[in-house]
Every structure is written in structure tokens, then in C-alpha cells.
Design brief:
191 residues, alpha/beta, Rossmann fold, five-stranded parallel sheet, 8 helices, transferase
């Protein structure tokens, strides 16, 4: 189980995933306020894997735009996605596992991040506007205003469960349970 002897579990699971050619870079994705940061941190704590908060990789002008309630364009997102993709590649080249939070709202963003690598698995935190809006209204200290939720959902292209490497989790479940489900999913991959 993922939550026992974290370092040993991390090394063992990482080795198995690598040996089997299975994903060992997780991208925790979903619209703003779905719980990406919290769930990713819980997974990282269980596995002992490094975690990068995707928001920290945004160029300053992106943060300024979003803070003012201006939705980002594909061109705005490009340098941010490239930074995330570079981190994913670096982990892959180093044979290291890791976790990144990133909204990954469009399929082409997910493809850009994964770069065709089989090392990447997306964990999609799925929820409705009704599920997520109250979380955003209560959140403090984040640059993304709650008013941006509509634009996030308008941009969202839900992952295709038939041909994308993705685990879909319902945000209405407790976040500890979501992290455990993600770990359990990884631990059951053959290898």
C-alpha cells in the first residue's frame, strides 16, 4: 500500500514502473479550485516523490493577467506548458518519478506536456461548477479569482478515457481518499 514505509514504497514502486515502462510522472489536472495542489501534496507525501506546483512555473505576465480576471490564450500558456514539459522530460531522462500540478485543460496541452512519453499519467480531478465554485469562493491567497471558473470550464476538454493515459477521480470524494485511489492505481500497474 502506498502509505506504508514511504521511502521504500517509493523506490520499489518507482523501480517497478520504470522497469515496466509505466508512467511515473503524474500530472494532477483539472480546473482551478478542484483540489490539485492538496491532492498532489497528499500523493507526494505518500510516495516520497518530488512535487512541483505548476502555478509556480507561470511567467509573471500570466499571473498578472489571471489576477485581473483575464483568461489566458493558448499563446499565453505556451511558455508555461513548455516549462512543465521540460521538467517532465528532465525527470524521465534522470529515471526519476515526480508530480506536477497543472490544469492541462486542453488535449493539446496534455500532449505538449507528455511529449509522447509513456512515463506520464494524468490524474484528472473532475467536478462540476457547483462542486468547485464554493471552494474557489473560500480560497484565500491565490492569484486566480473565482470569477475565472467559467472560462476554465469553457476551455476544458475533458480527457478521452479511451485513448489518453488518465485516471479520473471525482472531487466530491474526500481528498485523502483521492490520493489513496491514485496511489492504489499506480501500485496495481503491472511490472
Amino acid at each position: 500500500m502506498c502509505d506504508t514505509q514511504q521511502n521504500t514504497a517509493s523506490v520499489s514502486l518507482s523501480h517497478r514502473l520504470r522497469k515496466a515502462g509505466r508512467p511515473c510522472v503524474l500530472i494532477v489536472m483539472g480546473v482551478s479550485g478542484c483540489g490539485k495542489s492538496t491532492v498532489a501534496q497528499l500523493i507526494a507525501d505518500r510516495l516520497g516523490w518530488p512535487l512541483i506546483e505548476g502555478d509556480d512555473l507561470h511567467p509573471a505576465n500570466n499571473i498578472a493577467r489571471m489576477s485581473q480576471g483575464v483568461p489566458l490564450t493558448d499563446a499565453d500558456r505556451a511558455p508555461w506548458l513548455d516549462r512543465i514539459a521540460a521538467q517532465v522530460r528532465a525527470w524521465g531522462e534522470q529515471g526519476q518519478c515526480g508530480i506536477v500540478t497543472c490544469s492541462s485543460l486542453k488535449r493539446k496541452y496534455r500532449e505538449r506536456i507528455a511529449g509522447g512519453s509513456a512515463d506520464v499519467c494524468f490524474v484528472y480531478l473532475k467536478g462540476s461548477k457547483d462542486d468547485i465554485a464554493p471552494r474557489l469562493r473560500e480560497r484565500t491567497g491565490h492569484f486566480m479569482p473565482a470569477t475565472m471558473l467559467d472560462s476554465q470550464f469553457a476551455t476544458l476538454e475533458e480527457p478521452d478515457m479511451k485513448d489518453e493515459v488518465v485516471l479520473e477521480l471525482d472531487v466530491t470524494a474526500p481528498q485523502e481518499e483521492l490520493a489513496e485511489l491514485a496511489c492504489d492505481h499506480l501500485s496495481r500497474l503491472p511490472g
